[in-house]
C-alpha cells in the first residue's frame, strides 16, 4: 500500500486525468505538440492543456482550427483578456497574446498533459477559427517539416546529446560541413574525410548492409580495450562524424537509438 | 576447449547475443558459427563482407585515420548499429584476415561484450 501511495504521489500525470503527455526537449517542441493536437482535432472538442504546476489553458477546437480560448488559469494577463475571444482566419493580435500565454504557461517546465473533452454546447457555426498551420506560421514553427528538415533536426539533437562526450565532431548536410567542434587538427581530418572518402565508404557499406542506406550508424576502433573510436552516423542527407572515447560507446549508441524511436 | 565451445561460452555469457561467427575475410567464408537460431547463409556471408569492408578497404582506413593514431593504419574493431540489432566486428590478433562477428540485440552492453569477445578471440588465436 505504501509503495502504491509513493507511486501515486510521484506520478507525472495528474491523478484523475485521462489524456496524454506532450513531451519534447524544448519549448518549441512542446508548442509544436500543442499545435499538432489542434491539427488532429476534426470534431468540435475542448482541449485542456495542463502544465506541471497545475495551470491550464482550455481551447475550443473544431475542423483542425482554434475557434476560441475557453478559459485560462495561467495567472497572467491572459486570464482576463483571452477567455471568450474568438479567433479569425488570419489570427490577428489574439495569436500573439496566446503565444505569450503559452510562453509563460511553459516556463514551469516542458511537461504538458492534454485532455480532449466534449464541448458543453456545439460551437457557433459562424466561427471560422484560425487554422493550426496559420498559428504555426505566425509563431515561426514548422508544423509539417520536410523529411530533410526532420533528419537535419534529428542529427542536430544527436550531436547536442554527445557534445560532452565527443572530443571532436563535424555535422554535415548533403556532404557539406555545416558545424564543427574540437581541436583544430582533429576537425581538419574529419572535414577532409567528409569532403573526400566518406561517400566511397558509404557506397561500400551499401553493398552489404541492404536496408540501412538511409539511416546508419557505424563505428571504427583500434585493437585493445582503451582509446578513441570514430563514429559515423547519418539519416537521409544529414550526417555526423565524431571522435569519442571507446568507453562511452554504449552510452552514445543508446542516445542514437533513443532518437530513432 | 574447442573454438566452437569458446564461442558458445561467449554467447552464453550475454543473453543479448544471438550469434557469434568466425569469418575468413580473404575468402569471404564463415568458418564456424555459434547461434541460438539458425541465420541464413546469405546473412552470414553479408556480415563477413561487411567485416572486410570495415577492416580492409582503403576508404575505411581513411575514415579510421580521423584518429591521431589511426593514420596509416586499419581499424581492428567495428560496429554497425541498426534499429533492430548491433553487430560487433573484431579482427583476429593472430591473423589479420580473420574476424569474429557477433549479432546482438539492441540492449547488449557493447563495451562489456567487446571486452569479453576480445579475450575469447585472444584465447582462440593462441590455440590456433
Task: Describe it.
The complex is a heterodimer of chains A (261) and B (128). By secondary structure, chain A is an alpha+beta fold. Helix content of chain A is 37%, strand content 27%. In chain B, β3 and β4 form a beta hairpin. In chain B, α1 (3-12) runs antiparallel to α4 (110-127). Chain B has a single domain, classed as Dynein light chain 2a, cytoplasmic (Beta-Lactamase, 2-Layer Sandwich), CATH 3.30.450.30. Chains A and B meet through α7, α8, β9, β10 and α9 of A and α2, α3, β3 and α4 of B. β9 of chain A pairs antiparallel with β3 (77-81) of chain B, so a sheet runs across the interface.
Compile the SSE list and pairings.
The complex is a heterodimer of chains A (261) and B (128).
Chain A: H1 2-9, E1 20-23, H2 27-39, E2 45-51, E3 56-62, E4 65-72, H3 78-81, H4 93-105, E5 111-118, E6 130-131, H5 132-138, H6 147-162, E7 168-173, E8 176-181, H7 184-195, H8 198-208, E9 215-221, E10 228-235, E11 238-245, H9 249-260
Antiparallel strand pairs in A: 1-5, 2-3, 2-5, 3-4, 4-6, 7-8, 7-11, 9-10, 10-11
Helix pairs in contact in A: 2-5, 6-9
Chain B: H1 3-12, E1 17-24, E2 29-35, H2 41-56, H3 58-64, E3 77-81, E4 86-91, E5 98-104, H4 110-127
Antiparallel strand pairs in B: 1-2, 1-5, 3-4, 4-5
Helix pairs in contact in B: 1-4
Question: Structural class, from secondary structure content of chain A?
Answer: alpha+beta
* Overall number of domains of chain B: 1
Whole-angstrom Rg of chain A: 23 Å
Distance between the termini of chain B: 12 Å
Amino acid at each position: 500500500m505504501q509503495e502504491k501511495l509513493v507511486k501515486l504521489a510521484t506520478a507525472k500525470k495528474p491523478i484523475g486525468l485521462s489524456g496524454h503527455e506532450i513531451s519534447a526537449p524544448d519549448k518549441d517542441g512542446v508548442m509544436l505538440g500543442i499545435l499538432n493536437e489542434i491539427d488532429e482535432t476534426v470534431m468540435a472538442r475542448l482541449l485542456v492543456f495542463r502544465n506541471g504546476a497545475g495551470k491550464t489553458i482550455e481551447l475550443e477546437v473544431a475542423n483542425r482550427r482554434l475557434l476560441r480560448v475557453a478559459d485560462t488559469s495561467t495567472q497572467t494577463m491572459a486570464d482576463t483578456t483571452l477567455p471568450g475571444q474568438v479567433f479569425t482566419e488570419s489570427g490577428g493580435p489574439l495569436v500573439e497574446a496566446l503565444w505569450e500565454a503559452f510562453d509563460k504557461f511553459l516556463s514551469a517546465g516542458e511537461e504538458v498533459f492534454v485532455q480532449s473533452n466534449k464541448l458543453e454546447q456545439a460551437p457557433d457555426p459562424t466561427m471560422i477559427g484560425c487554422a493550426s498551420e496559420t498559428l504555426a506560421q505566425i509563431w515561426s514553427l514548422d508544423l509539417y517539416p520536410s523529411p530533410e528538415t526532420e533528419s537535419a533536426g534529428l542529427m542536430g539533437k544527436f550531436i547536442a546529446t554527445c557534445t560532452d562526450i565527443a572530443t571532436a565532431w563535424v555535422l554535415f548536410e548533403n556532404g557539406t560541413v555545416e558545424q564543427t567542434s574540437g581541436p583544430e587538427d582533429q576537425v581538419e581530418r574529419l572535414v577532409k574525410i567528409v569532403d573526400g572518402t566518406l561517400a566511397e565508404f558509404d557506397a561500400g557499406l551499401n553493398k552489404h548492409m541492404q536496408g540501412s542506406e538511409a539511416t546508419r550508424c557505424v563505428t571504427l576502433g583500434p585493437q585493445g580495450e582503451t582509446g578513441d573510436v570514430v563514429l559515423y552516423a547519418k539519416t537521409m542527407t544529414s550526417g555526423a562524424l565524431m571522435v569519442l572515447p571507446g568507453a562511452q560507446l554504449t552510452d552514445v549508441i543508446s542516445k542514437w537509438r533513443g532518437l530513432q524511436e | 576447449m574447442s573454438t566452437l565451445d569458446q564461442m558458445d561460452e561467449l554467447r552464453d555469457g550475454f543473453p543479448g547475443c544471438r550469434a557469434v561467427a568466425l569469418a575468413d575475410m580473404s575468402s569471404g567464408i564463415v568458418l564456424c558459427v555459434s547461434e541460438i537460431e539458425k541465420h541464413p547463409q546469405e546473412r552470414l556471408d553479408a556480415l563477413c563482407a561487411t567485416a572486410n569492408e570495415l577492416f580492409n578497404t582503403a576508404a575505411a582506413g581513411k575514415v579510421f585515420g580521423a584518429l591521431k593514431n589511426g593514420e596509416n593504419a586499419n581499424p581492428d574493431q567495428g560496429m554497425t548499429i541498426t534499429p533492430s540489432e548491433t553487430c560487433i566486428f573484431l579482427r583476429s590478433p593472430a591473423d589479420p584476415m580473420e574476424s569474429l562477428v557477433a549479432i546482438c540485440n539492441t540492449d547488449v552492453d557493447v563495451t562489456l561484450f567487446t571486452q569479453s569477445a576480445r579475450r575469447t578471440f585472444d584465447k582462440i588465436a593462441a590455440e590456433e
